[in-house]
Design brief:
single chain; 270 residues; mainly alpha; 2 domains; two-stranded antiparallel sheet; two-stranded antiparallel ribbon; 4 strands
């Protein structure tokens, strides 16, 4: 499908920050009584200002009361809890919203001047995650959480697309891992785009990494070299975005069924 939207987050490392500030503006406008469609405004802003074509479901995902990239962003920058749901704020009222917003603005500017950098730096954050992973994990499972990956986790409510499993972390968010079907970095050099990502539980993530399971490019049904794996031949339980066939083909050709396909990388790790 040639119309597949690719989200060029890499050109917009502050897309979440900018999108969130805009969201606060339009939410306030709405709470002040003006009739605005938050979804349409968000879609317009991301398209016009950030060159990002969100789908309507993704825009709605940003406003989800319990799983939204905005919630994680606010928590990371300020430690504050934030409920992005407009229904929630309608029930609280404009005054409560403005109070929260002031609190947020004060904490955000203080943190920014303390650190001396932008408060939410996607590239730096993913590099730190990467280094930490390489130091502490001896097997080769480089987990990089890019802004796109964080966004996608929210889209799937932190559930595995193959089995639907999630579990709650202390703090309440669910847990899943985003897997790049064609892995990032040498020697695979996959892309950090929506169509190369799948949300997985840790078990299915390991099976994917080690080439035990894959997805048929024709219908995204599960294939496995181990006949005891559950769900062989079944389609994905959850599919809210389009996975690009070329990445599935690459995985089947280069990683699936190969003995230790990632060993070369693992040996580089300390
Ligand atoms: Zn799973």
């Amino acid at each position: 499908m040639s119309t597949l939207e690719r989200i060029p987050w890499r050109r917009n490392p502050s897309a979440v920050e900018l999108g969130f500030e805009f969201y606060l503006e339009i939410l306030e406008t709405r709470l002040a009584g003006e009739e605005v469609s938050l979804v349409q405004k968000l879609l317009g802003y991301f398209h016009d200002k950030l060159e990002i074509d969100l789908r309507e479901t993704q825009a709605r995902g940003l406003m989800h009361s319990s799983a939204s990239v905005f919630i994680e962003y606010v928590k990371q920058v300020s430690g504050l809890d934030f409920n992005p749901s407009s229904e929630y704020w309608s029930s609280k009222g404009l005054k409560a919203f403005r109070h929260w917003k002031q609190h947020w603005a004060a904490l955000k500017s203080r943190k920014a001047s303390d650190v001396g950098e932008t408060p939410f730096e996607t590239v730096g954050a993913s590099r730190r995650t990467h280094d930490l992973t390489r130091r502490t994990v001896t097997i080769n499972r480089i987990i990089r959480d890019t802004a796109l990956a964080r966004f996608m986790k929210g889209l799937y409510d932190y559930r595995c697309q193959i089995c639907g499993y999630t579990f709650a972390l202390p703090g309440g968010l669910g847990y899943c891992e985003m897997h790049h079907i064609r892995p990032l970095g040498a020697p695979h050099n996959g892309d950090d785009v929506e169509g190369n990502l799948i949300a997985l539980c840790p078990l299915h993530h390991a099976m994917f990494d080690y080439g035990v399971i894959g997805l048929a490019p024709s219908d995204s049904s599960l294939v496995s070299i181990d006949p005891s794996v559950a769900g062989i031949g079944k389609p994905l339980i959850l599919q809210k975005h389009k996975i690009e066939k070329t990445f599935l083909e690459y995985h089947l050709q280069v990683i699936f069924g190969r003995e230790n396909p990632a060993r070369g990388l693992a040996e580089q790790a300390p």
